[in-house]
Amino acid sequence: MVTDRAPTEIDEAGWHWLRVKHVTGFPRNARDGYFPSHGVTRPAATTEADLPAVDEDRDGALPVDAETVADADRLALETTYLSGKWLIERPPEAVDDLWEAVVEDVAAERFWDAKVSTRAGCEAFGETEHAVLVFTPNYFDREDVDRVRRRLREVHGVTEAIRYRPDVYTLDGVHRETLGELTDSEASRFRD
Questions:
Q1: CB-CB neighbours of 57 under 10 Å
Q2: Total H helices, total E strands in the chain
Q3: Phi/psi-derived region of residue 14, left when phi > 0, alpha when psi is between -120 and 50, beta in every other case
Q4: What is the pTM of this model?
Q5: CA distances (Å), 125 to each of 12, 75, 120, 131, in order?
Q6: pLDDT in tens, 7-16
Q7: Are 155 and 107 contacting, i.e. CB atoms less than 8 angstroms apart?
Q8: Helices marked H in the chain — which ranges?
């Protein structure tokens, strides 16, 4: 399904997110060119040697110990659930233009994947701002994570501090007992 409607125009109940594939028509697995273009290791080919370093100060993120972060990284490796996303918040008057630019970057394989909360989603979640999520396929590749952040900053004007959250932090079946504060919605692996 391809739609030409902006996130702020989508108010149908239950349609909380607009995924880039709804706009571009590309399923995630059709963007295989992203990996060689940016030198990113595919999650299935990632090994223990690729585990990222754990910054002790966590760049201003929630206070959790380094071992908990390392546990999450090992779980991500074990499950090959290595995707993650930068979270950008925008008010309704600014989100449509940013979303259009992000979709263009996904179509050009400068970004791997993205989604945005719709007007219906903002209302359902009780939010005044839209969430734009720009995904990378392998958060162990810090160079790619940082490249995407630089593009958001330099090309798309996202100059405020934003956070990067690995998808493993919200993996079904991962409970607070396993990852503690990392399961909190404000937790992040990287901040900028």
A1: 8
A2: 7, 6
A3: left
A4: 0.89
A5: 14, 29, 9, 11
A6: 999 999 999 9
A7: no
A8: 20-24, 34-38, 66-79, 92-107, 119-125, 142-154, 176-179
